[in-house]
Design goal:
By secondary structure, this protein is mainly alpha-helical. It is built from 32 helices and 7 strands. Helix 3 packs antiparallel against helix 5, helix 5 crosses helix 22 and helix 7 runs antiparallel to helix 8.
Length: 715
Amino acid sequence: MQEWKNVLLRGSDTKQREKYWGKFQKEEAKIQTTAESLINVMPASEARSMVEEFLKSHREMGVAYRAGFKAFVDAGFDAAAGDKAVKGIDRAPTTLLEKAAATIALAGTAFAAEEKLFYENREDIPEQYRWDLSHIFADVDAWEAASASVEAKLPELEAFRGRLGESADVMVEATKLLYGTVRTIEDIYVYASHWQSTDTRSADANTYVGRAQALYAKFGQAIAFFEPEIVQLPEATISGYLEDPRLKTYDHVLDNILRTKAHTRSQEVEELLAGSALLQSSPGQTYGFLTNADIEWPTVKDETGEDKKVIPGLYYTFMSSQDRRVRKDAALALFGTYDKYGNTFSGTYNGLVQKDVWMAKNRHYPSTLEMVLDRDNIPRSVVETLVGAVHDNLDAVHQYIDLRKKVLGLDDFHIYDLYVSTVPAAKSTYTFDEGWAMAMEFWKETFGEEYAAVAERGRKERWIDVYPNEGKDGIAYSGGSYNSVPFLFLNWGGTLEDVSTLVHEMGHSIHSYLANQNQPYHDADYSLFVAEVGSVASESLFFEWMLERTTDPTERLALLNHRMNSIIGTFLRQIFFHEFEHAAHVMAEEGRPLTKESLGKAWGDLWLAYYGDAVTLDDEFKGGWARIPHFYRTYYVWKYATSFAAGEAIAGRFRAGDETAVQDYLETLKLGGSVYPMEAVMRAGVDMNDPDVIRAVMDRFRSIVAEMEEMLVKE
Ligand SMILES: [Zn+2]
């Protein structure tokens, strides 16, 4: 199409016209030959008839373009005349081509060239599969310049100390400077950390990340006065500010600061509390050093008899071994080590919990839980509803354990039997382009053109880092800065899981994109409470969409298994974790000691409650809580579960054929952080106080277990 544009643009010059028109015709012939040879090798199928249809409409398109070319020349090289003749003519072949690509991908037929899934050198990855960080900075020099500009602004920011009550003008200047500065720091940090993701071995990248973090810390110190000072302002001053059109935009930010006024202490106390920051981070730091550096993790023999080190990061890899001996050895070795250092782990965690309890007391909160919930303005009842509704349905989890026991043929069930796959591996593999075509079809059908267009733009503008390379971090995420774009970081491996990850991460990226497009910087960022809503709803709908299109029983089982694993991992397991940290905090609040024994008992009791009497609890597992680094982010994990449930509930509205579901969903994404999380979810039609929202997830879990049982145990 580029060639056609060039014909119209430069066609008044004979030489240029002939050059581009020649190129256009060559391109056209190439597409025809490719489609023809594709048809020759394809078996008779829905996909083949689509390609045939495409070929036909592509030929018709060629006729129209030739007429357009003639009209253009006849009209004395008038581009408008040429355009008029071909207007809308590409639509049919383009749609057909996309449909055909998706159908081919769904059929799992490998027509595409062999895909390379790992690269020694990142530079060898074709450019269109590498993300383009120049969306943030052109190069490291630009990064340095931005960093220097931030350094220069910090004293300017500090100069506003004690002046926020002076006048609306001063307040406008201060907030502008504050948000302008932190926006740039965000760019600085994202550029460095994204670079680090693509090469974790790079000492340069590590240094830049360290410098970005230091800049954040300096900024934090420079603006520490901001919130306490606002809280101290007379109400009349604040309401005066809010009448000023330049400050009205900060109403939600201000409301959030003033809402918690009762928990902000005097300047003197606040300074004391702020001064304890480094002390407060000590337990988490000690935990990190202990697990990542000091502990010598044990070695076990793998399936082939080779020695393998059991580090915490490989836990799930070991637990997915089909060889039960390997699973058992690895689990006992790993948990035995946590147990061996049990006193140190408990002492360290006790430090964190006591810090939380102390802070909640100082801030006049009835408990740590209430203090943490207040940050997101969430009532305690939401968490209680969540936990209660799951507890009422734990028999579904017990059924699931029974099923695993049956399929694995076990007499006794141990925790190391919990994660190994019970279904045969899926047969289909997908190249990234095939996976993309499928996802694109899904996005268009489910969320419509607006959503699909953003994804398309992401692909064109290279937001996505697709393939693994030597040194690249092995995770998947979505992340960017307000000023740039919401990048996607993948490690494409060609499985169904990878297609699902693409859909999930794109859910986050489009959430961020829509929030950034529709909100000013200070209202764009959304809380973890809503962060998974968009991605989970999208992933859930994709799963149903795939199920509808899958006839092969092995594929169907793989899909069901994948879906069940995400309910367990993102929902059930997180509530389990939440219950443990809540038990620990309650113990501390009631003055009971946190020890290796008391924490071990709390963990063991939860295991038995969640997984039922059918599970044999090995003694070593009582130290299993020490494996979870998230416990050093107090009351963080349960938000995954609510976010997941809300996402499922929204997906449920789509499934029920609710016509306003798409609109509400997109509107919620566009809200970003401009309203409190409970309200954002409410706008999508989901009330997190309603136990039915949680029950629906458990019902889905139940129905999947039942169907898998039917398929796996029927003979
Ligand atoms: Zn996610």
